[in-house]
Design a protein that fits this description.
seven-stranded mixed β-sheet, 9 strands, 277 residues, single chain, alpha+beta
């Protein structure tokens, strides 16, 4: 069937919110604009759209899944910074504490998300990230070395000041390099961040990019880290981290040391033999 170009620009929504990798990575980039389609929306993320979102898989909130009442929707919009905080009769419920006892916030120019998000290497991540990993992959974290957790410590004055793990990744040493995998993110964390932290984390590439980049810096003399990537969102995060395609389907690599081309080629061949991982 021939598709007719519609008048004006068109925004596409994936049926039921499930992103088609073929459409998002191939067909839309090649054919979308010719048909007047300028962007496509998914519904499988728990975060607002941001500058690093794929144009062909922009996350969106949907009724009865992300919000079930007008109050839920307003709360989502407030958390995303799209609505002002409540005023008027309810203002006293949300007003800051008196100046005499309230902590003085740091000037916006000096506040840094790194003061509240830190990646740690842990020997056993089951207690810290087991539930997050199982929710993402459907099974327990594998037994291996080099687990990395990204921990969020809320600013003073937050309603909930309990530190919590918001992202995880592991780096398996193999064949003289590392295999990066298991990357997962608690998407609900974005809604818990103050607006300034959310914006800085977004500008840094997002939680997946942060935890993966941090883990790379802890690998010592490792020359490379390989990723076996099939998910479009994981691929986008890896590209922001500095991964590149190897020419082998789904196999990406982040070179951590300068290497001659023949050494890179041999390393790619060894990593290919280990797929899938």
């Amino acid at each position: 069937r021939t598709l007719r170009k519609r008048d004006g620009e068109t925004l596409f929504a994936y049926p039921y919110g499930d992103v088609s990798e073929f459409l998002a990575r191939d067909w839309f980039p090649r054919r979308g604009e010719a048909l007047g389609i300028v962007a496509a929306f998914s519904a499988d993320d728990d975060e607002p759209a941001h500058a690093s979102s794929s144009r062909w898989a922009i996350p969106r909130y949907t009724a009865r899944y992300h919000w079930k009442s007008p109050e839920d929707l307003e709360r989502l919009l407030r958390d995303a910074g799209a609505l002002p905080r409540p005023r008027g009769k309810l203002a006293t419920l949300f007003a800051p504490a008196p100046a005499s006892i309230a902590p003085t916030p740091a000037p916006e120019t000096t506040r840094n998300w790194r003061d509240h998000l830190h990646t740690w290497e842990v020997n056993d991540a089951k207690t810290l990230a087991g539930a997050l990993f199982k929710k993402s992959f459907g099974h327990d974290i594998p037994e291996m070395a080099h687990h990395y957790v990204l921990v969020y410590s809320p600013p003073a004055g937050s309603e909930d000041t309990q530190p919590r793990v918001v992202a995880y990744v592991h780096q398996l040493p193999k064949e003289g390099f590392h295999l990066c995998g298991g990357m997962c993110v608690d998407e609900r964390a974005y809604r818990a961040f103050p607006k300034w932290i959310f914006e800085q984390v977004r500008d840094a590439g997002g939680l997946a990019t942060i935890v993966t980049s941090d883990s790379m810096r802890m690998l010592g003399e490792s020359p490379a880290s390989f990723g076996y990537v099939g998910d479009i969102k994981a691929r986008a995060a890896d590209l922001r981290t500095g991964f590149e395609d190897t020419g082998i389907e789904r196999l990406m690599v982040k070179w951590l040391k300068p290497l001659p081309d023949d050494a890179k080629r041999r390393m790619i061949e060894r990593a290919t033999a280990l797929m899938p991982f």
